[in-house]
Amino acid sequence: MSRHLGLDVGGTNLKWAVIERDAEPRLLKTGRLPTDTRGGEQSVVRQLLDVAQSIFSEVEGIESVGVGMPGVLDPAAGVTRFIPNIPGQWDGVQVTGEMTGAVKKPARLINDARAFALAEHGLGAGRGATSMLGITLGTGVGGGLILGGRLYLGHEGTAGEFGHQTILPDGPRCNCGNQGCLEALARADAIAAACGQPSVEESVVAARAGDRRAQQGFRDVGRYLGIGASNVVVLVSVDRIVIGGGVAAAGEILLEPIRQEIRRRVHVTDVERIRVVCGELGTWAGAIGAALHGSA
Ligand SMILES: [Zn+2]
Question: 241 vs 4, 68, 143, 188, 231, CA distance in Å?
Answer without folding.
Answer: 26, 21, 10, 19, 12
